[in-house]
């Protein structure tokens, strides 16, 4: 079962012979933690000399005694050629739900082009938690050398808003637990929410036995590639390869409209994506495109296309369920615009209140696979 995941993007380079400490948070618990690494966009093999998993304390420091080494086919070292992934051996012991974890990767030698998730945010417990965990950055970079086993944070001198080479965390979870992936763009990433919690984070914090994994790429499109693959390709290449996914929520297409895409092309892509998901036994939930009048790339043609696409999502036959994000955010007095309270200020990205409304728009029962398939880690 996938308890955490991140979309892959092509980012900068320049990292060599150092350790990166990625701080993430599980959604559901289980046992036998496994870490999947990716070099999807790398231009050379990357060697990880050591990989450790621990529990953050404050900043880059870890709880004493929590940091444990992961192995890959019994070896503490693993090399990923360009375009490949590697899954660690299970780490014995329980994994708590909604627990912050620090995954430390020692990069031996030159790393080349980094595969990671840009605009990463520091994970925290739900706001309702009686004992919030200390904050910090989503990732830290060390001075040169292997500091993966360090429980002190002293060697980690730089903060980074990037998750490095992490593709997914998986656990063995009870059979009653399923996972939903959100395939989207900057709205999925959480851009606009001044609290740092986007609607996907809020969805994961409802307390249900459901893993919610975020496959958002800021600036991502359905039809064409950006820093990551086009969403249509990411569905098959990334999302559906992760264990336990029973449903996918799709909220993507505004960036395509901003680039001049036609409604018919997006609708055809949605049909293909739904067919791909169904062939894998996965349900596809269509999310209506949110209002964006006033945004820099809004045009009358784009608005007409958005309305046509939303009519298809609501009334067409491609999707198994509907999440009406448009209805959740629009201004009743001017439906092409975001409700002012839901507008972060750029007329495209929702505010914190808007992200809360997006999460509330997902009122579906727990997703069940269309067909029984084996996706255990």
Automatic annotation (TrEMBL):
<dbReference type="InterPro" id="IPR013830">
    <property type="entry name" value="SGNH_hydro"/>
</dbReference>
<dbReference type="InterPro" id="IPR053140">
    <property type="entry name" value="GDSL_Rv0518-like"/>
</dbReference>
<feature type="region of interest" description="Disordered">
    <location>
        <begin position="114"/>
        <end position="148"/>
    </location>
</feature>
<dbReference type="InterPro" id="IPR036514">
    <property type="entry name" value="SGNH_hydro_sf"/>
</dbReference>
<dbReference type="Pfam" id="PF13472">
    <property type="entry name" value="Lipase_GDSL_2"/>
</dbReference>
<feature type="domain" description="SGNH hydrolase-type esterase">
    <location>
        <begin position="182"/>
        <end position="357"/>
    </location>
</feature>
<dbReference type="GO" id="GO:0016787">
    <property type="term" value="F:hydrolase activity"/>
</dbReference>
<feature type="compositionally biased region" description="Low complexity">
    <location>
        <begin position="119"/>
        <end position="139"/>
    </location>
</feature>
<keyword id="KW-0378">Hydrolase</keyword>
<protein>
    <submittedName>
        <fullName>SGNH/GDSL hydrolase family protein</fullName>
    </submittedName>
</protein>
